[in-house]
Amino acid sequence: MSWYDWFASFYDRSLEPLYREARREAAVALRAHPGQTILDLPCGTGQSFDGLAPAVGPEGLVLGVDLSPGMLRQAATRARKRGFSQVVLHCSDVHALDQTALDQAAREHAAGPVQVDRLHIFLGLSAFPRWEAAFERLWGLLAPGGRCVIVDVHAAHPTLQGHMVNLLARADIRREGWRPLERLAHRFERAPLPSLPQHGGQLYLASGDKPT
């Protein structure tokens, strides 16, 4: 993960303004309530915490998971500066993440097993090497009746800018990342978000509920 560790050193100042409004939209679409648990993966430098942590309140939990220690160091600094004591960070590959890992990560904040009420996947499915398997694993961790929100970029035929985004983020924005959610969720919705040339394609927000 040395690339993402290095990327973390300038990630916020170069990319935060590009996705700020999309992160607000995602937080609203999650419809989280105080006391709930949000799994935020990949959490990166914690740019989504400002919307997620207040939604669950101090009695809730935001589990931020990322594979890059460099990203997590930045995320820890952000959470500390904001006073978000409900944010817990965990370093893990998405394919190794399971209920035991979540319970261990949150053991100081939760008396028993963690129930993931909300799943927040922001710019992850275009970057995970085995993205469909990654989604299946995350969906399996979401509690029945829980809600999932995905925000990502899609370009069926990337322009030069799209290829630059793929190179910088180690991503593939040709993927239709919403498809697994569309197949499995109740009340699935997908909508375009305001996009800039720097995004490399069309930003979208997809959401749906896990059947009970």
Estimated share of beta-strand residues: 15-25%
**Class of secondary structure makeup:** alpha/beta
* Radius of gyration of CA atoms, rounded to a whole number: 16 Å
Mean pLDDT metric: 94
Number of strands: 7
For the largest beta-sheet, the strand count, sense and barrel status come to:
7 strands, mixed
Give helix and strand order, one letter per element, not per position: HEHEHEHEHEHHEE
**What overall geometry do the principal axes of the alpha carbons give?**
globular
Helix percentage: 40-55%
Low-confidence stretches: none
**Spatial strand sequence of the major β-sheet:** 3-2-1-4-5-7-6
State the separation between the terminal residues, measured CA to CA.
Answer: 37 Å
**What oligomeric state is this?**
single chain
Architecture overview:
By secondary structure, the chain is of the alpha/beta class. The model has no long low-confidence stretch (mean pLDDT 94). The chain has a seven-stranded mixed beta sheet. It is globular, with a radius of gyration of 16 Å. It contains seven helices and seven strands.
Name its key features:
7 strands; 212 residues; single chain
What is the topology?
Blueprint: H1 2-30, E1 37-40, H2 49-56, E2 61-66, H3 69-82, E3 87-91, H4 99-105, E4 116-122, H5 131-141, E5 142-154, H6 160-169, H7 179-184, E6 186-192, E7 202-209
Helix pairs in contact: 1-3
